[in-house]
Design goal:
The protein is α+β, with helices and mostly antiparallel strands and 309 residues long. It contains eight helices and twelve strands.
């Protein structure tokens, strides 16, 4: 299970950590599935109240419940470990513009990625949890509650790692990245809800094969891990994805042997004082990553000269 040059805090034993991550992940799945179905959630969390009842609805309730479940669970399981947790739900209180958090070990959490899909009932939502050291993710957890998939990726100091998928019984399955290499054969996985004209022009220039629409960054990366798709592109517009959108999916994909970079090849960086992951980001199965990046750079120079990739 362990990469040859494993990275973890010195007082954290791997098997104990993964045991807790499994327990907390499946608990989060039960919470989210209950809120998605309008049922009473487990673990003592209140049911969702609609606006007419004085509440904010199932998304806010689910977000806050999973956030509490994971933060409190990590704190209880590892009370002496010197790490910090940054969550999408707590970022407003934790962060100051331009100032990284003073943490050697930082968990980055998105308790519900894919809120529109959660509301629309597509089932394509996820939970992201990543452990970051020196601005790079070394461990990633992507939970897909509806298909009951738990993806885990662990990256060593040498950049190599191991990734796998688990079901509720604990049975493990390896990734199955495709070997498609010609750009015209590659399958793109894209958003239903976040596409603009520039992205459409970029995809036309790349001249790829088929396209699939999937919600949640974690869900998109899972299709690459299963070999159903080969790449995902994030192109910033008026807003940009945040650290909690990208850290866990990147960790799992890279641990599986894929790639996740800016179009110019720069690695993504986290806890830099700006949580926006702006630019043109390409996640792929790795086989054609260089060719994809080169063609994307050339196309963007025409589509949007001066765009910072």
């Amino acid at each position: 299970m362990m990469p040859a040059t494993a990275i973890l805090p010195p007082d954290v034993e791997p098997e104990g950590l993964f045991r807790e991550l499994r327990r907390l992940s499946w608990g989060a799945a039960d919470i989210l599935r209950a809120y998605a179905r309008g049922e009473q959630p487990p673990h003592g969390f209140p049911r969702a109240l609609g606006v007419e009842e004085g509440g904010e609805g199932p998304v806010s309730a689910a977000d806050l419940a999973v956030n509490s479940w994971l933060l409190e669970g990590l704190a209880a399981a590892f009370p002496q470990t010197d790490w910090t947790v940054l969550s999408e739900e707590t970022a407003g209180a934790q962060l100051r513009a331009g100032e990284p958090l003073p943490a050697e070990w930082l968990w980055i959490l998105d308790p519900l990625d894919g809120t529109k899909d959660f509301l629309q009932g597509t089932g394509e939502y996820a939970v992201h949890l990543a452990l970051v050291k020196d601005h790079r993710p070394v461990l990633g957890v992507v939970l897909l509650p509806e298909p009951e998939e738990l993806w885990i990726g662990w990256i060593g100091a040498d950049g190599n790692g191991r990734a796998w998928r688990e079901d509720r019984s604990g049975e493990q399955f390896p990734p199955a990245l495709s070997r498609r290499s010609l750009l015209r054969e590659l399958v793109l996985v894209a958003s239903r809800n976040h596409r603009d004209e520039r992205l459409e022009h970029l995809l036309e220039a790349l001249a790829l094969g088929d396209t699939r629409a999937i919600g949640s960054v974690g869900g998109k990366v899972a299709t690459i891990l299963r070999g159903e798709a080969d790449l995902y592109i994030s192109l910033s517009g008026r807003s940009a994805p945040k650290d909690w959108d990208m850290a866990a999916p990147e960790a799992v994909l890279r641990a599986a042997g894929g790639a996740f970079t800016h179009a110019d090849g720069r690695p993504l960086s986290y806890n830099d004082g700006d949580v926006r992951q702006a630019g043109c980001l390409i996640a792929s199965h790795g086989v054609s990553h260089g060719a994809l990046s080169d063609r994307a750079l050339a196309a963007l120079a025409v589509i949007d000269p001066g765009f910072a990739v």
